Amino acid sequence: MSLIPNAFLFESQQTIQKLPKKPARRNSLKPLSGKYALDTLQTLDDFTPFARLSLGWHPEGLQIDCRVEGKQGALKCDPDQPTTSDGLHLWIDTRNTPGVHRANRFCHQISVWPSGGGKNKQEPIVQQVEIARCREKSPLADPELFWAKSTIEKTGYELSVWIPADALNGYDPEESPVCGFFYAVRDRELGLQTPSVGEEFPFASDPSLWHSIELTD
């Protein structure tokens, strides 16, 4: 068995399609179609994906969808225990600085939990957090800027998140159409899904491990 995952040996850049319009409000978030689907290189290492992710862009922000299937137990979502809770974690570098091992002011980490919020604890939670070991801190956005909508099912959940441009320092698709991007879907039953490597690599704090996305018309 190789000590180095096959996924680590490939550099990935995926083209991301433009949204026809941005959502007008939280409740207007609709699941993205198949043309917005994100790839994962984990399949090169005999990994079976349990989540389907999609990403679309607009001059005023990004929409990310995540659908998890195959769960047997109830969701466990606790922002105070992010490494053991079920949820989606995103890393975005609006200026795409590959080769840099520590985050700068254009790098952002956004965590999303499909439940745990609201009066009934059934609403999704979105929270921007500081990246570990960052050399320059990005301003943390007000949680109220983010929109999230989730549907909880017996065997999983469907989650849509709108990240406005105001929450992404340096976001400028016209001048900087290539961004760094990484995601991690954590599930205490199903494991960890990413675009490539797992936690044997420090993807949460090292932008050089992130992939590139090209925001195209």
Walkthrough of the structure:
The chain is mostly beta strands and about 220 residues long. The chain has a single domain, classed as Immunoglobulin-like (Sandwich). The protein contains no helices and eleven strands. The strands form two sheets. Strands 1, 4, 5, 6, 9, 10 and 11 form a seven-stranded mixed beta sheet that branches. Strand 2 and strand 3 form a beta hairpin. It is globular.
Would you kindly provide a brief summary of this structure?
This protein has 217 residues and is mainly beta. Helices cover 0% and strands 38% of the residues. It has a single domain, classed as Immunoglobulin-like.
Query: Quick one: CATH class?
Result: Mainly Beta
What value does the Rg take, in angstroms?
Answer: 16 Å
Task: Tally the beta strands.
Answer: 11
Number of domains: 1
What key attributes describe this structure?
217 residues; mainly beta; Immunoglobulin-like; 4-stranded antiparallel beta sheet; 11 strands; globular
